Amino acid sequence: MALQALQSSGVAFRKILSHFPEELSLAFAYGSGVYRQVGPSSDQKNAMLDFVFTVDDPVAWHSKNLKKNWNHYSFLKVLGPKIITTVQNNYGAGVYYNPLIMCDGRLIKYGVISTSILIEDLLNWNNLYIAGRLQKPVKIVAMNENVALRSALDKNLKSAVTTAFLMLPESFSEEDLFIEIAGLSYSDKSPEGQFTQLMTLPKTLQQQINHVMDPPGKNRDVEETLLQVAHDPDCGEVVRQGLSAIVRPSSMKQSTKGIFTAGMKKTVVYSSLKLHKMWKGWLRKTS
Q: Looking at residue 16, what is its pLDDT?
């Protein structure tokens, strides 16, 4: 769950980054191409590398990237950087993906998200798409001195710790909770403690919990609902339902947007690769 500093593989990743416009507030790599997955497969060197680029001005960034990497884009490139940015910001989870790109001898996929939209997601969990990714192991390739972004990244991890704690049973191991939350200040799951934690959750998650618990027509205050949830033996399950209500729609919308941003041919190829990867994983589990 920690943002991990890039070490030995930094040179290779920064070399890939040199093919793109420099104006990035954050760039990170993730996935099976970065971290070895559980299982006997040794295809890490050939696995697709996944990147996310965070930019302050998406229109300007796409304009420069279209000049450098015109062939990365689907048919939307003919509509120009403003339309690409509109599709990026207003549909799905606020990310524009270019998949199946050969770059410096490696197959990569990269997503572009505006800094302001990422900060909102990190703080409020509006869709928990990139914010959710940043709760898992990633390798930072580049990061500027944006204080607001750094603060939001930290807040996102703290929110993840709080949420995970609410969903854990009365007793749990350090491994269950991960080493990053070893210093968590709460050691019993009292209603008072749970209410305090619920009140620190991101706004969108609080609203979804309220929606799960609030009977039609009652329109209770969010704080009133959270107080009820804190005393509920199924508090963790309610939090889980709230998370699901955030993640499921944003993932579906982002997948649908991929047909337009990547193009139909790339979407079919990419989906086939994902299905093949899932199938191999299932075979390993059953063998």
A: 95
